[in-house]
Amino acid sequence: MKKIAIFVLLGFIIFIGFRLFLPAPEITNTNPTGENIICFGDSLTYGTGATKKGMDYPSQLSRMISMPVINAGVQGDTTASALERLEDDVLSRSPRIVLITLGGNDLKNRVSRETTFDNLRTIIKSIQDMGALVIVAGIDIPFWGRGFGNAYEELCDELGAVLIPNIFEGIMGKRKLMSDPIHPNDAGYAIFAQKFYEKMKPYL
């Protein structure tokens, strides 16, 4: 038993060391072409839970950077429905930087992880092929997340998209930041905007 425990411990140490010293994945389109910053996603982009127009995260982000930001969020959107409107709402609008919140409704609706991330892969790759930088907000919910958190990380590493590992970190479960169990309020969306700003700042 002691030998097994030692081997397990050594394996864990090697894994952690590998992760710590592994070079960061190369980001695709660090000098993006195109003209527009587009927020593409579900109710988290649309702004469900915000008290009034202008308090959704794309609007708050626009004020932070003093630049126009297009809100292409649709309530209830899944990766499949987002893929159907990708051409009209993103690709045809000269994207430069695209911020994505997708996958939460797939998780809620029990869509398989494979289907969800195949759709998301197609979405990200199609945007990158236009010369745009992609920033993805991941969702990592303990005990209920069905491995989505790791899947976001693996996909963004594969495609060179910028990742916010868990957009809800520090927000979900805090009544002062949430309008309901799923959607932030104005203050929560301000944190969303700040997180996206920090990730996109080097590429503005």
Descriptive overview:
It is a single chain. With 204 residues, the chain is of the alpha/beta class. It has one domain (27-203): SGNH hydrolase (Rossmann fold, 3-Layer(aba) Sandwich). Helices cover 45% and strands 12% of the residues. It is built from eight helices and five strands. It has helices spanning 2-21, 43-46, 57-65, 79-89, 104-108, 113-128, 148-159, 186-200, and strands at residues 36-41, 70-73, 95-101, 133-137, 162-164. The chain has a five-stranded parallel β-sheet with strand order 2-1-3-4-5, sandwiched between helices. Strand 4 (133-137), helix 7 and strand 5 (162-164) form a beta-alpha-beta unit. Helix 3 crosses helix 8, helix 4 runs parallel beside helix 6 and helix 6 (113-128) packs parallel to helix 7 (148-159). The protein is globular and about 40 Å long.
